[in-house]
Amino acid sequence: xMSPILSLKNITYQYPDGTIALNDIxxxxxxxxxxxxxxxxxxxxxxxxxxxxxxLKPTSGNLIFNGEKLxxxxxxxxxxxxxxxxxxxxxxxQLFSSSIYEDIKFGPxxxxxxxxxxxxxxxxxxxxxxxxxxxxxxxxxxSIGQKKRVAIAGIIAMxxxxxxxxxxxxxxxxxxxxxxxxxxxxxxxxxxxxILSTHNVDLAYEWADEIIVLHDGKIIEQGAPCEVFQNEAAxxxxxxEKPWVIEVFEKLQDGLGPQNQQYPKSKQxxxxxxxxxxxxx
Length: 281
Ligand SMILES: Nc1ncnc2c1ncn2[C@@H]1O[C@H](COP(=O)(O)OP(=O)(O)OP(=O)(O)O)[C@@H](O)[C@H]1O
Ligand SMILES: [Mg+2]
Prior knowledge:
alpha/beta; Rossmann fold; 2 domains; six-stranded mixed β-sheet; four-stranded antiparallel β-sheet; 11 helices; 40% helix; binds adenosine-5'-triphosphate
């Protein structure tokens, strides 16, 4: 097993006004994982992401990067940001250039690519996120969903080993939500870790191979999607609901017979299960 890209050891973060946003968090982000972070408003998701990218510094505890404690020296932070890319919850904090093209280019520009390579990565990212037609526009003219896609294009162009996306589909219509999620599926590989936050439990359940539930700055549940959503207390505490696939399955479970006691992973699997009566998840 490859060593984690980043890990957190007993991290607590307190904002200057005294709010304890994260309370003794320990966590490993292993290569190849697709992780969904879920939890109620104010649970600490965005704060956790800002710590992972070195934007915030823990009040206590340590970030372990490349096997060593991060000491927040400039050089270290520069390297960290090369390998760890973030799409902020509010894309407006991310877009500040005079055009979309310049914005998407901003991240990869510092990666030491040749002019030709740079143009190619930006072009490819625009095609993947369908933002090409917007490239000459100033960011403030864009709709929220368009801004979000441009911010995502910026991180894709950087090709980081750890990709952090804070509510990537918030504000996106169903077409673009699906598009971005399948894009994240495509670019996922053995070497890369993707961690995203979302309030969409259906999306978290289908996409992730690990789910972390954060509540009041603490991890209250963590594991495979099938297991996490069986923790009714954690789900309720976090203002979440079960994914509809699970709800329907549970309602039908009695009728499905003993061979079908495992949860389907998606709508397609549920339909298939209903048809063939086979065990899935
Ligand atoms: N700059 C700040 N100063 C003081 N408190 C803050 C600051 N930013 C966030 N907080 C507090 O820290 C806690 C965690 O906030 P955070 O934004 O990390 O939650 P979240 O899980 O991302 O919520 P949401 O689902 O609404 O995005 C909240 O209680 C919030 O009020
Ligand atoms: Mg947030």
